[in-house]
Design a protein that fits this description.
single chain; about 270 residues; alpha/beta; six-stranded mixed β-sheet; four-stranded antiparallel β-sheet; 9 helices; globular; disordered N terminus; binds adenosine-5'-diphosphate; ATP-binding
């Protein structure tokens, strides 16, 4: 099995149409539309509270959107048509299609969310072994390769508390890769790190981009966005206000809201 098999030979890998989400009567996402070509990097920018994390969580279906269609590769869910139980979760056939959509992406969180009582390697193999039923020995072999890829070949047996924040984030990246996702999602992966640890995480992300992985990244690292992104989306108030290449959105923003935001963070 390769890391990114695809059944969708043409067209974008990701297609999002009319995505809507409210929390307790407050609308957080209003008709979000975008596409992500296979092998490209999209950076999602926007002020705090604009809905960026909710977009990521919708792609990975950690939150169930109220409406809209999300397609990743050959898995697609129309959230208006999902059957929901009293707990708000998808039920029956809907639960199966949601699970299939979830399998298409792997998420790297702002805080790594590693299991504290498991070693780096055990954290990385947890998903393949427990969720995907991969034999432990094979998962370990591949887990070690992934840890080497993120620069942690000699840290496989360390526990999270023995690693720096940057190393923990890199374990988080290896763990996301271990599930062989079509799409990698990053939710401000460097924002909780001390400044001197940011570079190591960003350089791993650059390498992944160079390998042609499809990435969707929420970050305030504008230099990374300029250098690596193929597409930049700027969100405010639950809508995508502006989109384009980094040269368009970051260096020559047309919308006042984008200009104001960039002035604040640059
Ligand atoms: P961002 O990532 O851009 O900071 P979020 O997607 O985290 O924005 O949040 C967008 C809005 O949705 C915020 O107003 C936030 O308070 C609200 N929100 C997010 N998650 C929840 C939740 N689980 N329950 C209630 N409100 C939420």
């Amino acid at each position: 099995m390769t890391d990114h098999t695809t059944t969708q030979a043409t067209g974008p890998l990701v297609e999002v149409t009319g995505l809507r989400k409210a929390f307790g009567g407050t609308t957080v996402l209003r008709d979000i539309d975008f596409t992500v070509p296979k092998g490209s990097v999209t950076v999602l920018l926007g002020p705090s509270g604009s809905g960026k994390t909710t977009v990521l969580r919708s792609l990975n279906v950690l939150d169930l959107p109220d409406a809209g269609v999300v397609r990743i590769g050959d898995a697609s869910v129309d959230f208006s048509a999902v059957t929901r139980g009293r707990d708000g979760r998808a039920r029956g056939e809907s639960a199966k299609s949601v699970a299939a959509l979830r399998r298409q992406s792997g998420m790297v969180f702002q805080q790594h969310n590693l299991f504290p009582h498991k070693s780096a390697l055990e954290n990385v193999i947890e998903g393949p072994v427990v969720v995907q039923g991969e034999p432990v020995r094979e998962a370990e072999e591949r887990g070690r390769e992934l840890l080497a890829k993120v620069g942690l070949a000699d840290q496989a047996d360390k526990y999270p508390y023995q690693l720096s924040g940057g190393q923990q984030q890199r374990v988080g990246i290896a763990r996301a890769l271990a599930l062989r996702p079509e799409l990698l999602l990053f939710d401000e992966p460097t924002s909780a790190l001390d400044p001197e640890l940011v570079g190591g995480v960003l350089s791993v992300m650059r390498e992944l981009a160079d390998e042609g992985r499809t990435m969707f990244v929420v970050t305030h690292e504008i230099r990374f966005a300029r250098d690596v992104a193929d597409q930049v989306l700027f969100m405010d108030g639950g809508v995508v206000v502006e989109r384009g290449t980094p040269a368009e959105v970051i260096d020559a923003p047309r919308m006042e809201r984008t200009q104001t935001f960039l002035k604040r963070i640059l």
